[in-house]
Design a protein that fits this description.
alpha+beta, six-stranded antiparallel β-sheet, 10 helices, 11 strands, disordered N terminus
Length: 289
C-alpha cells in the first residue's frame, strides 16, 4: 500500500482523488501550444520591422545602424538582423559599402499598387487635375490616418504630368486638408487629437486647443478650411471635405499657393470651386455632398 503523511505528520493511505486533482491542475496550467507561441513571436517581429521603417521620413532619408538603434531602442545585434531582413526583401537599400540605409524601391512599388486600387485616388484623379488647371494653383488630395493628413495625390497646374501619385504625411492641425477633415470628426476624435502635441511650424500655427477648436467650428459652418501660413510661411490654402458612401468625412481636397497669388479677396471664390470639386468626388464615391 502507498503511504503518505498528512500536515501533522500522520501516515495513512494515499488519497487518489487528491492526486487526480493535482494532475488536473497541472494540465490546466500547461504552456500555450507551440503554434500559438510562434504566432506571437511573428507579430512581435513584424512590429519591430515596422518600427525600423518608421524611422525614415522625407526629412530623414538615410540612417546608419547606430542611428536606427538610437531611434528604436533595439540592441545592435537585433537592429542589424532587422535591417538585413528588410534589405533582403527590398524594403531597404544600403548605400554601397557604407553603413547607411534608405527606404527601398519595393515600398514605392507597393505604394503605387495601393493607390491604383484605391477608389479615392482613381475617382478623384480627373477632378484633381481639372481643379489645378481651373485655379492655376497647386492641388492636394489627402486622407486622414487618425493623426496626420496623408497626401496621396497632387497636381501642379504648371506641370505637364497633371495629377500624380504622391505620399507625404502632413500635420492635420495646420494644413487646410487636415483641418477640412478634422472639422467633421466626432467629439471623441477631436478631444483625443487636441489632447496630443500641436507642434508649431510658423508664428501663425494654432497650438492652443481652444483656438484650434474654434477654427474647426468656423470651418464646419462655412464648409471650407483656410491655412493662413500655418504650416509654411507665406502659403495660403483652401480645403474642403470629401465624404465616403456612408457620409463620413475621411479625405479632403485643397488649393494652395503663395499669399500674393491667392489673396484674401479671392478666398471665397476659390473655396466655391474647391467645394464643388470635393463634392463631385464624394458623389463619385457614392457619398453625398
Amino acid at each position: 500500500m502507498l503511504i503518505q503523511k498528512d500536515a501533522l505528520g500522520h501516515q495513512g493511505p494515499m488519497n487518489y482523488i487528491s492526486r487526480n486533482a493535482e494532475q488536473e491542475v497541472t494540465v490546466n496550467t500547461s504552456p500555450l501550444p507551440a503554434s500559438s507561441a510562434r504566432s506571437d513571436e511573428g507579430i512581435k517581429s513584424l512590429s519591430k520591422l515596422m518600427k525600423v521603417l518608421d524611422c525614415f521620413s522625407t526629412s530623414v532619408r538615410t540612417l546608419s545602424l547606430s542611428e536606427v538603434c538610437q531611434r528604436t531602442g533595439f540592441p545592435k545585434s537585433t537592429t542589424h538582423r532587422l535591417l538585413a531582413s528588410l534589405r533582403e526583401a527590398g524594403l531597404l537599400d544600403q548605400e554601397g559599402d557604407r553603413d547607411r540605409y534608405r527606404l527601398g524601391l519595393k515600398l514605392f512599388e507597393l505604394g503605387n499598387t495601393v493607390l491604383a486600387n484605391m477608389d479615392l485616388h482613381r475617382e478623384a484623379r480627373p477632378y484633381v487635375d481639372a481643379l489645378g488647371r481651373l485655379s492655376g494653383q497647386s492641388v492636394h488630395l489627402a486622407v486622414f490616418d487618425g493623426h496626420h493628413a496623408v497626401v496621396v495625390g497632387r497636381s501642379d497646374a504648371h506641370a505637364d504630368a497633371g495629377a500624380r501619385a504622391f505620399f507625404e504625411s502632413a500635420p492635420a492641425h495646420c494644413t487646410s486638408v487636415g483641418k477640412a477633415i478634422l472639422a467633421f470628426q466626432n467629439a471623441a476624435t477631436l478631444d483625443r487629437f487636441v489632447s496630443g502635441e500641436l507642434a508649431r511650424f510658423t508664428e501663425h500655427t494654432l497650438t492652443d486647443p481652444k483656438e484650434l477648436l474654434a477654427d474647426l467650428k468656423a470651418t464646419r459652418e462655412r464648409g471650407y478650411s483656410i491655412d493662413e501660413g500655418e504650416h509654411q510661411p507665406g502659403l495660403r490654402c483652401v480645403g474642403a471635405p470629401i465624404r465616403d458612401a456612408s457620409g463620413r468625412v475621411f479625405a479632403a481636397l485643397s488649393v494652395s499657393g503663395p499669399a500674393w497669388k491667392l489673396p484674401l479677396s479671392e478666398v471665397e471664390s476659390t473655396a466655391k470651386i474647391v467645394i464643388h470639386s470635393a463634392n463631385a468626388i464624394s458623389q463619385a464615391l457614392g457619398g453625398s455632398s
